[in-house]
Amino acid sequence: MKNNKELLYLxxxxxxxxxxxxxxxxxxxxxxxxxxxxxPDIVRVFDAxxxxxxxxxxxxxxxxxxxxHGMLSRIxxxxxxxxxxxxxxxxxxxxxxxQGTAEIPIGTSVSASLNGQWLGFKTCRPLHxxxxxxxxxxxxxxxxxxxxxxxxxxxxxxxxxxxSGPLTFFLGTDTARAAQLSLWLDQHICDVSLNTQGGRxxxxxxxxxxxxxxxxxxxxxxxxxxxxxxxxxxYYAVPALYNFVTLDISSRCAQVPLNxxxxxxxxxxxxxxxPLDDVEGAFLLGCVPAIHLENQTSPPVMLFATDSLxxxxxxxxxxxxxxxxxxxxxxxxxxxxxxxxxxxxxRLRRGQPIRGSVLSLTLAPGCYRTLGEMYRxxxxxxxxxxxxxxQSTFVMLEIFTPDNPEVLWQFWHVDGLRxxx
Length: 421
Hints:
Blueprint: H1 4-26, H2 31-34, H3 40-61, H4 65-75, E1 86-90, E2 102-104, E3 109-114, E4 117-123, E5 127-129, E6 132-141, E7 145-154, E8 161-163, E9 167-170, H5 175-187, E10 189-196, E11 199-203, H6 210-213, H7 230-237, E12 244-247, E13 255-257, E14 263-271, E15 284-285, E16 287-291, H8 306-314, H9 324-335, E17 337-349, E18 352-363, H10 371-385, E19 394-401, E20 404-410, E21 414-415
Parallel strand pairs: 18-19
Antiparallel strand pairs: 1-16, 2-5, 3-4, 4-16, 6-7, 7-14, 8-13, 9-12, 9-15, 10-11, 10-14, 17-18, 19-20, 19-21
Helix pairs in contact: 1-3
């Protein structure tokens, strides 16, 4: 299969030949040069021009990732990051007997074995567990209305009533069915009722699901104006993580009397005919999403290292393709950085001690046409460093040359520009 550039090249070459035939018909005296010419120089001109235009089209049609990716990495780097492994964890009591309610905080560690390798996960949301299990799920249709009947049974210590609390249901891993349930729970639900001890009681509480989940992103990211885009990315990557719905009837019915066998029915009534006949595998209790993130094993790369600083400055060469002489001059200035050293220092700001850094930069004068050029380059580097330290600190730049241990230039401190939080 031909790659994209080769395909574009063949398309442009075919277009040039068609254009040559069209011009030859309009100007017959040029026909021997355009259509029937066997001159290898003319053929090479056609091929070279087709190759240049193919390269240009390839750049235009790839949406300029060198620009788009650079912008995304600064304003919303999550879009360029891979989605880590995720799963749904269900907590069940030992011997199927609850010992009352339980609170599982966010970040609880769990582990699983896969092919002999243990993988660690951490829960992404807090989980409240009530001493209930779903014993039976039934769908009933009457033509004008539909009902989902959940038979809940209390476990653990025997009691004649359930002290109600929020119930978080997982709608299952079948994304299509979970999406239908989300739609009907949001738009078509009429009421929620309890059927226990031979009587049915309608309550005003309605399930809520998507609205809360969209405000609780799965991946840990800082708040930004683009945080609203995160659910869009997460949903299509791991849709099961949004298959949750919560029902809390405690404000309407603080105590639910139980049947003699410790059960009661929770009935969700909908207007219209539900397009589902079976909800087995849905409405699971005790479930929460979890994510696998490895601990950081190495410190971040600091710009106060020689190679890192030089690599960073090369990113700001806009003339690599348009002005080669100017690009070579910029690269030569960067190559003049021989060594970068950093040491911590303190100074007083309004009577308060402030910790900062002194950056010792050794430059090779031979990489600059004059000392004036080297001085201006040093000032630019000094100003750029302020963009990468917080406002609660500062940086000072000292310039050395390889053959002189004395400071050549020392610049005034520059306060950091990044917000502390």
